[in-house]
Amino acid sequence: MPELFYLYIFMLAAFTGYEVIARVPVILHTPLMSGSNFVHGVVLVGAMVVLGHARTPGEQAIGFFAVFLGAANAAGGYVVTERMLAMFRRDKPVAAPSRESSREAVK
Predict the structure, then answer these.
(1) C-alpha distances in angstroms, 36 versus 5, 18, 49, 54, 65?
(2) pLDDT tens digits for 6-51?
(3) Rounded to an integer, what is the distance from CA 2 to the centroid of its chain?
(4) Alpha-carbon distance 30 to 34, whole Å?
(5) How far is CA 105 from the centre of its chain?
(6) Distance between CA atoms of residues 82 and 34, nearest Å
(7) 89 in Cβ contact with 49 (< 8 Å)
(8) Where do the domains of the chain lie?
(9) Radius of gyration for the alpha carbons in the chain, expressed in angstroms and rounded
(10) Neighbour tally for 23: CB within 10 Å
(11) CA pair distance 96, 106, nearest whole angstrom
């Protein structure tokens, strides 16, 4: 019976996550990704705790797999966030418009 409860919680979390992400405006995706990277860090710590309490080789294998995937997800999220933030950086400072160009714009 607990397996069905866990499956229900997983499906509810997946549906809720999909609905929340689908309604977020595009401009807020980068801050949302940064927040999700933090959550993945918590998941990684939880997976390491569970791995530390694993007794059988099967539990250890699943725990190792969870730690590996959690670490890869967190690291990949930070790389993608850094790349997205780099897209918004300006390489050159924006020059103030000169008087001549503003006069030409008025004409």
Answers:
(1) 25, 13, 20, 27, 20
(2) 899 999 999 998 888 888 887 777 777 777 777 888 888 999 999 9
(3) 29
(4) 6
(5) 44
(6) 9
(7) no
(8) 27-88
(9) 23
(10) 7
(11) 16
**Is 81:33 a contact under the CB 8 Å cutoff?**
yes
Q: Which pLDDT score, from 0 to 100, does residue 107 have?
A: 60
Query: 52: closest CA among 70, 37, 71, 67?
Result: 67
The residue among 77, 95, 80 whose CA lies nearest residue 41 is 77
Helix (H, G, I), strand (E, B) or coil at 105: helix
**Neighbouring residues of 28: CB distance < 8 A, sequence distance ≥ 6:** none
The pTM of the whole model exceeds 0.85: no
Residues contacting 50, CB < 8 A, separation 6+: 63, 66
The one-letter amino acid at 24: V
User: In this structure, which amino acid lies at residue 27?
Assistant: I
